[in-house]
Amino acid sequence: MLYVLTNYFTMGVGIRLFVVILLCFIVILATFLYKKRGSITFRKIVPVFLGMVLLLAFVAAVPAVTEFVETVTAQHRLSKEDRDEIEAVRNALIDEGHIVHAAGFIEKTDGETVNYTSCVEALNNCYDMGNRFCELDFLNTTDGKLVCAHEWKQLYDNGEPLSEAVSLEKALTCKVEGEFTPLDLEQLVDFLREHENLYIVTDIKHDYNVDGAKLIAETCPDLLDRFIIQVYHEKEAGIVEKIGFRNIIFTLYRTDEAERSPRAIRHAALKHDFVAWTVKKSLIDEEFVSMIDENNGILFTHTINDPEKMKEFIALGVDGFYSDIVMWDDIKKELENGK
Question: Which stretches does DSSP call E strand in the chain?
């Protein structure tokens, strides 16, 4: 009993409900015995015991029932068409096994190869190389808009890197890494309308994820199926779903240990039909891969550019990778041949 009480909140909803039923059974049994026995001492002790058990049953029932209702409600929130769409994107991710990180490597005029640009030139290059999934970083400007960049210091104003956030108008006059063209949400939407078969995976920085998702939905309500929103905590997923997005990746690099526990993973998987889960390399082992697999998820990791390292993670059961590589076809063949 002590073990159950100390570990109750880490148990699944089914076990929690069983505990509630067991406590109720104890109450019924104690009541029956109370009526059968006439000892004064016994009659004094039983009411106190019953009161404690009933209190425990109530404490146990509230979170268990709440979680059960939340899970059932969430599961019925998605239509068959929604689930079919999610499954189609998930299968495409499995087939591709790759998401281009921040639009991928791009070469500067001096021959230096850089990454993390999320710029116009890198996006064009990513698409021209035949990639279907492109992750982009997003920053919130001082006027509440979205510009694609990993950090403000990547944007150069008259040769000097920015040290703080600026307006969208100002950001678009800068150069990414001193050379490339900044990309904003309006330009990105135009690009998606002109280029089919491309999904954008969002990495909206800082604490602007939900507001950023709302802004995307307001800007292009007809293109929500072309965006895969990364959420950083389970509670964000429900909000993003209510905004209208169906394709969601749960990326775990901002989560704490409790959010990555077996119980938390199971709870999140029951409530949300994620197209994929993403976790940083240092957290991957056979146990973690099995935990995702047991919850019918697919697992990606980031960021890996070495095919030999990719093979090691494939051997553990990882399904795909974020990488800066844009010429993916040859590496994909090599990885498939190595399986």
Answer: 98-100, 106-107, 113-114, 133-140, 146-148, 155-157, 160-161, 175-176, 183-184, 199-204, 227-231, 248-251, 276-280, 299-302, 320-323
